[in-house]
Amino acid sequence: TFSPSEGTPHLTINHDVAAELDSSNAFEGPEKLLEVWFAPSPTSLPPSAQPNGLKAVSADEWVGMLDMVNCKILSVLESETVDAYLLSE
Amino acid sequence: SSLFVFPHKLILKTCGTTTLLLGLQRLLHIAAQHAGFPFANASRATDIKAAATPYRVFYSRKNFLFPDKQQGPHRSWKQEVKYLDDMFEGGSAYMVGKMNGDHWYLYITSPNESITPPRTPEENDGRGHIARIPASILRGADEPSDETLEILMTDLDEENAKQFYLDNASALASEQLAARAQKARDEARQSLGDLTNGQQIDEDVDVFSNGSDAEAPEQVLTEALTTEGHALGTVVSEACGLSNVYPTSRYPDARVDAYLFSPCGFSANGVVPAAPQGNAEDGKSSSIHYFTVHVTPEPNCSFASFETNVPGGQSGRTTSEIIEHVVDIFKPGRFSVTLFEAKGRAADPNVANEGKLPSTSSQRLLAPVPGYRRLDRIVHDFEDYDLVFRFYEKE
pLDDT value at position B355? Predict the structure, then answer.
């Protein structure tokens, strides 16, 4: 039996969005890239921050922000130090 | 589009007509209310106006292709810069590359040291000399280096780009399923043949493959595997060679999440735990990096991007190897490479390098890319980062 180790990234698919997506009207590939740092490193978070920093924020909170961007979450690849969200558009 | 959430930073990369910057205010509020970062503009984090104060901000993009179709502040670089300037103090905006050709824009703020003051901005080296300590050292000796490699490719080979269309991927998935089913039947026949000493067993095998009870679920499964975006994304990721950019032979715990859009288009995120180091106590490393790929294959606006913060070299693949591999997957007519790297000991400003390139970043991109000629080579020496921009065209 295969049992993944604790550090193995874990994938969750949002079937509600992924199943009905149509990108017929998408037209331009080049992306905009935003990187916002709230501390210099994961080990130097300010005392007021959650121990896990931004990773403590639930996916539901990001949904609201992503609505303003016009993106939906298709799936999430979770790992120990980074959560990777694959988005529509 | 993709979102990467680390404990201390967030990376959001969005395509098409998305309105990325319109989500910025909400992002800062979430960081204050739900992650507990220090905030301004309000007395309580729950106040909707509360916005976390960033340590630093980067915003970048390739030059616009269809600015009139963009929305919000994204119709011009000037509007985007104004939007960012209204939110942050001390930002600097740059254009890198040919103004009348392919170029790249960058907005960057200086580190906000009031959030996490530097350990010591200057230290005595013991011989009476004051040495300024590089930012990467100030962050802590245990911090990994920070670098981001981005490859932006346009004018993709039209025939090659067909693999990023749903019809082609579905056909490929069907072929793969048929081959697997045939192999399973052959193995079943072989096993039953062994059990029955070679007697005719085709009817028994058909019970598994063509029986009326098993037919419906098999068809449902086949349809799902040949139409569902994630399933097809995985097929395309393996077929085009993306899954081998960071191969499991060198990065055993790497994982790719890919999606093929309908009728075309492809996105993938990869999470890449560091290659095991020989001197690591348990043979593992706690650092986990990412890569992300987005493809628009239509001939009139074909584009592909690859971005990663997996450190080049060390025990993994070199930066040049990665560039060559990625370019070979998409076969673009033109592409740019940007390598953004935090300065470390190699780029200590006290080390005499007058008249030379400011860091090893540029040297790591010196290797030619087969089949392409380099047209531009620009180096920016920022306060604590080096930026190398290169632009290539097919020979």
Answer: 43
